[in-house]
Amino acid sequence: MSTAPNAQLTDLKSDYIRRGWFKFPSRFTGQAIELLRERVQAISQESRPEVVLEKDGGRVRAIHGCHAFDEACQALVRLPCLVEMAEKLIGGPVYLYQFKVNIKQAYEGDAWPWHQDFSFWSEEDGMPRPDAVNFAISLDDVHTGNGPLTVIPGSHRLGLLDLPEKEADGMVSDWRQHVSADLAYTVTPERVEELAGENGKELILGRAGSIHAFHPSIVHSSSNNLSADRRALLLLTYNAVDNAPASPTRPVFLVDRNTDPIVPREDGRFAFEADD
Ligand code: SIN
Ligand code: MN
């Protein structure tokens, strides 16, 4: 895939502004996805802090910051079609703020409660503005049964909702509460029902290799995986270079401290085909 043609790009950007998410017109080929799956499998078996288990200590829930130590993951981040799309959506040079793979194992993968990503980035890291974008790359086919990402379209335009009063509560937010099924910042069920009543909910489905963009402030969740099919989702968050967090204290595998603009580089291992 080269970057989307201009007319199409205008439509994608207007979808992003209006609904807070869109699907890329192209997906990664099976071969590219096979390489990423292989890397995810290998990293998941390593004993390192970037590998996070489900709350019962059983299966691997997620792996983080892989671009910093894995060559194929680093190459993925630098692909021109991803970097250029992020630059066009955000409107300037970007760096990679966060890399993660939420694995959501068959039968045992836990949910992600309703939340807005920007709550974490603003409250915990001091990110000034939501001038960032998530690209979600499906490493497996995603269907209604294996815990797809679910979004409330348009909710990103409301800014941050329902933040707890951390200091007043004396609550200390541990980074593990940013990656577990017990999230530190959530949107209340009442607010979710109210928003969904107005705007509906949309499931982000697609074949392995498909790529979706979603906004840092969009209200989203995903349910437990009750099916026999794993649902691994690789998430890249690009941030504007002039929007780097003011006071990052979380581990570097959650908040990359290198804010130099990415220099895009093609890599023949990552090819694309039209998505339907
Ligand atoms: C998920 O993997 O379903 C959740 C992703 C996210 O909350 O960003
Ligand atoms: Mn999220």
pLDDT averaged residue by residue: 93
**What is the CATH top level name?**
Mainly Beta
Structural class call reads alpha+beta
CATH topology name, in short, is Jelly Rolls
Fraction of residues in helices? 25-40%
- Beta strands, count: 13
What is the CATH architecture annotation? Sandwich
Shape: globular
> What's the number of domains?
1
CATH superfamily: q2cbj1_9rhob like domain
Low-confidence stretches: none
Q: What spatial order of strands do you see in the largest sheet?
A: 1-10-7-12-5-4-3
- Quaternary form: single chain
Bound molecules: succinic acid, manganese (II) ion
Tally of contiguous helical segments: 7
Roughly how many Å apart are the termini?
Answer: 14 Å
Biggest sheet character: 7 strands, antiparallel
Task: Round the Cα radius of gyration to an integer and report it.
Answer: 17 Å
What does this structure look like?
It is globular, with a radius of gyration of 17 Å. The longest helix is centred in the first third of the chain and has 15 residues, at 30-44. It has a single domain, classed as q2cbj1_9rhob like domain (Jelly Rolls, Sandwich), CATH 2.60.120.620. The strands form three sheets. It has a seven-stranded antiparallel sheet. Strands 6-11-8-9 form a four-stranded antiparallel sheet, with no helix packed on it. The mean pLDDT is 93. The relative contact order is 0.27. It is built from seven helices and 13 strands. By secondary structure, the chain is of the alpha+beta class. It has helices at 6-19, 30-44, 71-77, 80-90, 117-125, 166-169, 189-199; strands spanning 21-23, 26-28, 51-53, 60-64, 94-102, 112-115, 132-138, 149-151, 202-204, 211-214, 220-222, 233-240, 272-274. It binds succinic acid and manganese (II) ion (MN).
